[in-house]
Amino acid sequence: MQWTLDQIRQFVLTVDTGSFSAAARHLGKAQSAVSTAIALLEADLGVELFDRSRRTVQLTDAGQVLLLEARELLRQAEGLNNRARSLNAGGEARLTLALDEALPYAATSALLREMSSRFPDLELTLLNGTATEVAGYVTAERADVAFHFVRGEMAGSFDQRHVGSVPQGVFVANDHPLAGLDVVRRRDLVKYRQIVMHADDVREASYSPRLWRSDSYYSIAEMVADDLGWAILPVNVGRDDAYDKPLQQLNCPSLALTQLPVRMLWRQGWAPTPTVLWVQARYTELLGTL
């Protein structure tokens, strides 16, 4: 195989401009140079690309088939050049993000769309899980950074940066007895089972003497939808429409629930790259718009 990318480009350009002479003018070359380059390409491929028996140059059947291959080859070559330029400018080849499954999907999806446009050559891997699981992915070096809801103190092996916060509320199934109250007080909540987020070494606030626990907000929401109890959930999780039965947010002013903080964490000794810092800053902005 002796053909070159330059010959392939001249082949495609001849088709796009309609003639050897037009392609030559575009390239600033003599027409004979373009004709010779394509003739050598045909000799190396063993097929005629153009039917030269007519007044205007037209593709042969083989030329039409190979034109598709030629365009794809040039697209891949351009992709290689773009990736090399990005790496030469200090860009990253790969990045693995671990994301808490309960983070607002509207913010996450907007972030990923913008990353696709801003870093088109980045090879991105996403890992999802509970807050504890995504921290474990960083510990195991399966992920470079994690974004998750803060669950108690951070292990000494991590560094962190605050990203934003998400409102939380009290939710029940829409046919739960508490759903019919205009204002719900603590003495009302204690009558019914509370389903609490469980994390190792973290004591969650509980208001009912009857407790169930789970390490997943979505698992808790499913149990609430099954009328197994009430729960404090991130508002985006409680308002999700994916459950068999809709959830209702209660008016519980006496609980004075604070917003759930979200942080980015990474292993100590690993410096966040410019790409990661952009992701952190943009995700902060997106969470702030919710």
From TrEMBL:
<keyword id="KW-0805">Transcription regulation</keyword>
<keyword id="KW-0238">DNA-binding</keyword>
<keyword id="KW-0804">Transcription</keyword>
<feature type="domain" description="HTH lysR-type">
    <location>
        <begin position="3"/>
        <end position="60"/>
    </location>
</feature>
<dbReference type="InterPro" id="IPR036388">
    <property type="entry name" value="WH-like_DNA-bd_sf"/>
</dbReference>
<comment type="similarity">
    <text>Belongs to the LysR transcriptional regulatory family.</text>
</comment>
<dbReference type="Pfam" id="PF00126">
    <property type="entry name" value="HTH_1"/>
</dbReference>
<protein>
    <submittedName>
        <fullName>LysR family transcriptional regulator</fullName>
    </submittedName>
</protein>
<dbReference type="InterPro" id="IPR000847">
    <property type="entry name" value="LysR_HTH_N"/>
</dbReference>
<dbReference type="Pfam" id="PF03466">
    <property type="entry name" value="LysR_substrate"/>
</dbReference>
<dbReference type="InterPro" id="IPR036390">
    <property type="entry name" value="WH_DNA-bd_sf"/>
</dbReference>
<dbReference type="InterPro" id="IPR005119">
    <property type="entry name" value="LysR_subst-bd"/>
</dbReference>
